[in-house]
Amino acid sequence: MRVLLVGSGGREHALAWSISKSPKLTKLYASPGSDAISEFAEIVSGDRPDVDLVIIGPEVPLAEGLADQLRGEGILVFGPNKDAARLESSKSFAKEFMVRHQIPTARSKTVNSLQEGKAALAEFTNGVVVKADGLAAGKGVIVCATREEAEAALTAKPAECLVLEEYLEGPEVSLLGLCDGKRFLALPTSSDHKRLLDGDRGPNTGGMGVIAPAPAWNEAMRARVESEIIQPTLLGLAKDGLDYRGLLYIGLMLTPEGPKVLEYNCRFGDPETQAVLPLLQSDLLQALAAAAGGDLSGEELRASGCAVTVVLASEGYPSKPISGRLISGLDLEELVFHAGTRNNGDHWITNGGRVLGVTGLGETHAQARERAYHAANKINFDGRQMRSDIGAALPTPA
Questions:
Q1: Which of 106, 166, 281, 394 sits 20 to 30 Å CA-CA off 53?
Q2: Span 2-82: which CATH code?
Q3: Consecutive 10-residue runs of the chain (398 residues): their mean pLDDT?
């Protein structure tokens, strides 16, 4: 099978690494790719090569309709069409979808002006979450404990459509699954650490580390999420005529009242992918192709063990990351996925906000965490930011 992988980040590096192990692969291309991805794929630009399958990694091409264009040319694509990708590209569309199909989620209100937003704050007495309606690279969420914080968040985005949500409490779980439009084939769960600093302090980021499987997940919760969230979501997609053949990411909050959807994403999570894919014992490429073809009925995804991924970020991340710093210590046995690097011929250089995802594997979370930090602490560059508490607190399953 000849495959084109669209994207250039840590998620795509992990995908390229995993896909390259498939006996079904004859040739892997990547566009635009990266220096790190070139270890597994031929980097292409300009004319698209002749391929059997295109896998779209990032959210922006999905939101812009790349899957629609390719399918119109008769090409097999892993990635939802533009209309279905609105589940991620528009928070207000996603909330309307959940309400319409009775999928548990936080109470919310969509506002289109500063005046409207300030008036709506009276409806949220126990904190409010302010979300940008459109794509924000995982950094469009501001959690506000007080009305003053909420008004400041609204004032910073006065002309934008925003979604205000009630503040929910409980363990967060990222549930990623392959979707063929009718079925959902789950990958191992994970828990992302969004805040920049230890103790879940500081600004929201695209993710500073991951633990997988999610410690708060158990069989009873899986069954409940299946009946209350996954099945209504699949039925809703079909009822609304949304062509969904790709990765469906369901961000969950396990509240005392039960699981609720925080968000949908329409692609592999980053950095969740860097922790989840190394746990797979199955042929990922085979399953991706089956989902793209609309029939996952004969597929399964076997997984085992635990993983912890620690993100190394640039100085200034997430607001104004500084690139161009020399990276040392990359000669490691552990898995290191490149999110924002380039190679100048002699050395690896930082080239983005999140630079590397260092993944440790083990039979237990503690073992995986020890290996991840043992490796991460050997890698250095000027201004490096790294949380020291990824996976340190293991919540009790709900």
A1: 281
A2: 3.40.50.20
A3: 97 98 98 97 93 97 96 97 94 93 91 80 82 70 81 74 87 97 97 94 92 96 97 97 96 95 94 98 98 96 97 96 96 90 95 97 96 96 98 63
Tell the residue number behind the tokens 């600093």, with chain if given: 197
Q: Exposed, middle or buried, 331 (CB in 10 Å: 0-12/13-18/19+)?
A: exposed
**How many other C-beta atoms are found inside a 10 Å radius of the C-beta of residue 41?**
25
Contact between 93 and 87 (Cβ < 8 Å): yes
The domain spans of the chain are 2-82, 107-166
Name the CATH superfamily for 107-166: ATP-grasp fold, A domain (3.30.1490.20)
Cα 137 to Cα 133: distance, rounded to the nearest angstrom: 12
Nearest residue to 269 via CA among 81, 115, 138, 134: 138
Alpha-carbon distance of 16 to 278, in angstroms, equals: 12
The alpha carbons of the chain give a radius of gyration, in whole angstroms, of 20
- What distance in Å separates the CA atoms of residue 391 and residue 13, rounded to the nearest whole number? 23
